[in-house]
Design goal:
alpha/beta; about 30% helix; about 200 residues; Maf protein; globular; 7 strands; seven-stranded mixed β-sheet; 5 helices
Length: about 200
Amino acid sequence: MRQIVAATGNAHKIQEIRAILDPLGIAVLGAAEAGGMPDVIEDGDSFAANAAKKAVEAARILNRCVLADDSGLEVFALGGEPGIYSARYAGEGGNDGRNVAKLLHRLEGETDRAARFVCVIALASPAGLVGTAEGEVRGRIIHQPKGGGGFGYDPVFVPEGFGQTFAELPGEVKNRLSHRGNALRNAVDGGLFARLPAAD
């Protein structure tokens, strides 16, 4: 079984990544299992730049194959906000609740509430970047948070074709629809995991 380290301290993300990659015979290690995770400054100007930087630096320091992602929400009426600043939309140290509150405040009186979640997955070996893959899911932002599941902006995002938010939908449904799930599947279909060096 291939092993890859997920360059995130977010337990929700690791759970989501494992649910998709485990059935494919790819074991996903968290930061603790990999002996810690280097702190990489995400100063890129795009999701792809941030994901690639995170994956390459972590793979070099850990001397392991690494999967990193950068993802966020883009609201079309807000010119793509919060975009790459999704996690810190309400300021450094901002939390999910404050980020969602700021988003809803910015959308007050706005009738066009179309949005998309975007995710770019980057894979790297200690030798460098293996490749990237992108995924998205489109939907709309509702007026009040609903549901107790998920994380981030999930309680206010309703995917196209559904009447419930990501925070209300069962985990397996969200994984099937989600931007991260789509990016991971695109990475698999694009042969990125097959290009990783085999584990010792």
